[in-house]
Amino acid sequence: MSEWISIKEAAKRHNLDEEHIQLWVDMKAVTAYVKDCNTVVNDESLRAFLKFKEQGVSLAYVEILERLCIGKSETCVTYAILLGARDKELLLYKEAKSERDTFRRMWLEQNDRIRDLEIELVLEQTSCCQCRFKKLCLRLQKLKFYSYSRMKFSAIFKKKWLKSGR
């Protein structure tokens, strides 16, 4: 039965660099698997590959290296596609945020206009409209009402904002 050993142990046992063994594992020239976040290699498979490698650089070894390079380049292409998709998604999020901010600004402006119209409507219905200082009186009442409604609105907004956890 074959023995499974860690890359570190295989490097010590066969007097090799761990990086070389890891490369051979990546090339799939040596049988290996990951166990508890550590790569373990089949010692028999490693010895067979070392015997094969003693014969010198052969066409089969070059083909193994070529397959590794092709696999790595395919991985790079996949990462590039994923990064491009992520960039598109981020751009969509930024556009949506910008649009949301624009609509929020428009909504706040519309609320201010409606509030101003409500104030004028309320003030027009009071007895102040009979006075000859009508404009001055309307402005004072409007300022008073506007500052009161602003304080009330900001208190409500602050309370909702704190509840939302922002």
For the largest beta-sheet, the strand count, sense and barrel status come to: 3 strands, antiparallel
Low-confidence stretches: none
Strand content: 5-15%
Structural class: mainly alpha
Helical amount among residues, as a percent range?
over 70%
Order of helices and strands: EHHEEHHH
- What is the count of β-strands? 3
Please provide a written account of the structure.
The chain has 166 residues and is mostly helical. The protein has three domains: 4-56; 58-110; 126-166. The protein has helices at 7-14, 18-26, 43-54, 59-124, 134-164, and strands spanning 4-6, 32-35, 38-42. The protein has a three-stranded antiparallel sheet with strand order 1-3-2. The model has no long low-confidence stretch (mean pLDDT 82).
The gist of it:
With 166 residues, this protein is mainly alpha-helical.
Summarize the SSE layout with pairings:
Blueprint: E1 4-6, H1 7-14, H2 18-26, E2 32-35, E3 38-42, H3 43-54, H4 59-124, H5 134-164
Antiparallel strand pairs: 1-3, 2-3
Helix pairs in contact: 4-5
List keywords for this structure.
single chain, 166 residues, mainly alpha, 3 domains, three-stranded antiparallel β-sheet, 5 helices, 7% strand
